[in-house]
Amino acid sequence: ATCGHGCKYGECMGPNKCKCLPGFTGKTCNQDVNECGLKPRPCEHRCMNTHGSYKCYCLNGYMLMPDGTCASSRTCDMVNCQYGCEELKGQVQCLCPSGGLQLGPNGRTCIDIDECSTGKAVCSYNRRCVNTFGSFYCKCQQGYELKYTGGRYSCADVNECVTNTHRCNLHAECLNTQGSFQCKCKQGYRGSGFDCA
Fold it and tell me: Coiled-coil intervals in this record (predicted)?
């Protein structure tokens, strides 16, 4: 089975046929599924789409149950939490729908944790961290693209000379390098490779 365009978040099952991981769709499994827009809706009250998944949360005055439903709570109603709350031993605590969010100074609203700047996110070699609201994901560095080879995903060098995405002069040769490219003026020409005279 070979998939010429690759299967970003999935597996190649046949000639250019990808089987996507849960939460992803598209011919090359590169599009996030917005589960919040599905019918029937996965959450009883409110839904937050995340990269490859989703989170449920409740309206004020309700608390989130393990099955994604919302149960009425008089005590929670009084606290006025942004994303619902839980009651433990008579104490009411506001909740955040994701580990990438934390309670703000008022103890009721949730603020984003930038995992990329705090160092909580660990991206492998030649990948960079991209922060999202409530989470993060690792993206290939510029000059690399995500490829599925040998049963795993890795960031492979983009050959700008083959894909024709270089900016070399008409009278220059393109030389591919790891993550980038170089331009060298052809014999009889002088210049930077981007300008040849």
Answer: none
Query: 3-state DSSP helix/strand/coil percent for the chain, to nearest 5?
Result: 10, 40, 50
DSSP 130-178: EEETBEEEEEEPTTEEEEEETTEEEEEE--HHHHT-----TTEEEEEET
CATH of the domain at 179: 2.10.25.10
Three-state DSSP at 77 gives helix
Structural domain harbouring 175: 158-196
| Rounded (5°) CA angle 103-108-112 | 35
Whether the ω angle into residue 40 lies within 30 degrees of 0, i.e. cis, is: yes
| Exposure on the CB side of residue 139, measured as CA atoms within 13 A | 11
Both structure tokens of 141: 């560095």
Are 153 and 164 in a shared domain? no
The answer to whether residue 99 is domain-embedded is yes
Which of 58, 93, 57, 59 is closest to 75 using CA atoms?
93
Comparing C-alpha atoms, which of 148, 128, 146, 147 is closest to residue 138?
128
The tens digit of pLDDT for each residue in 129-181 reads 889 888 888 888 888 888 777 777 778 888 888 888 888 988 899 999 888 89
What digits encode the pLDDT tens for the residues 68-108?
788 776 667 677 888 888 777 667 788 888 888 999 998 88
**Pair (20, 68) in one structural domain:** no
Output the pTM of the full model: 0.46
Q: Token match 């606290």: residue? A: 79
